């Protein structure tokens, strides 16, 4: 290479580009990006369920003091004051199966706001946030539990366990859920 003073700026840039290409390393191999579905896993009786993360606003321990609701079905446990908002506390198992949940320290409330309805759903246990690869979502798989069929939106079979996808929006619009008066 001659002196830099004899090269035009264009020639100098071309030479710089050539040297950069000689020393450049290849781009990293492009990996396939996998999409994940995220949800809150919970249990009703012995059934493992998961609902979309966006369907559940908050998870709380079950309040110890609830105001009774006269004339309501037994699965309406009462009304709770949650952060200044009065919410009905609904025994989800009692609502769907007519078998009430016994309250203890493991029981949790899933706070939902679906179809304009805010409520606390009492479940046996919350198992945390689960991440499933999208391709594992079996949309058309039948639900094994007859009482859950109207609310099941497929399942995930992952790491030896089956998780039924429970649709909170469908629940909030169902007559089973809305007809709470005796």
Structure, described:
The protein is elongated and about 95 Å long. It has one domain: CheA-289, Domain 4 (OB fold (Dihydrolipoamide Acetyltransferase, E2P), Beta Barrel), CATH 2.40.50.180. The protein is 17% helix and 40% strand. It is built from 4 helices and 11 strands, in the order αβββββαββββββαα. It has helices at 9-23, 92-97, 168-173, 175-178; strands at residues 36-44, 47-52, 56-61, 76-82, 85-91, 108-114, 117-123, 125-133, 137-138, 152-158, 161-166. It is α+β, with helices and mostly antiparallel strands. The strands form 2 sheets. The protein has a 6-stranded mixed sheet, with no helix packed on it. Strands 3-6-7-5-4 form a 5-stranded mixed sheet.
Topology:
Blueprint: H1 9-23, E1 36-44, E2 47-52, E3 56-61, E4 76-82, E5 85-91, H2 92-97, E6 108-114, E7 117-123, E8 125-133, E9 137-138, E10 152-158, E11 161-166, H3 168-173, H4 175-178
Parallel strand pairs: 2-11, 5-7
Antiparallel strand pairs: 1-2, 1-8, 3-6, 4-5, 6-7, 9-10, 10-11
Features:
182 residues, OB fold (Dihydrolipoamide Acetyltransferase, E2P), six-stranded mixed beta sheet, five-stranded mixed beta sheet, 17% helix, elongated
CATH class: Mainly Beta
Radius of gyration (Å): 28 Å
Number of individual domains: 1
Strand order of the largest sheet: 8-1-2-11-10-9
CATH superfamily: CheA-289, Domain 4
Overall geometry: elongated
CATH architectural label:
Beta Barrel
Secondary-structure element order, as H and E?
Answer: HEEEEEHEEEEEEHH
Based on secondary structure, the structural category is: alpha+beta
Mean residue pLDDT: 90
Task: Summarize the amount of helix as a percent range.
Answer: 10-25%
Q: Tell me the fraction of residues in β-strands, as a range.
A: 35-45%
Largest sheet: 6 strands, mixed
Q: So how many helices? A: 4
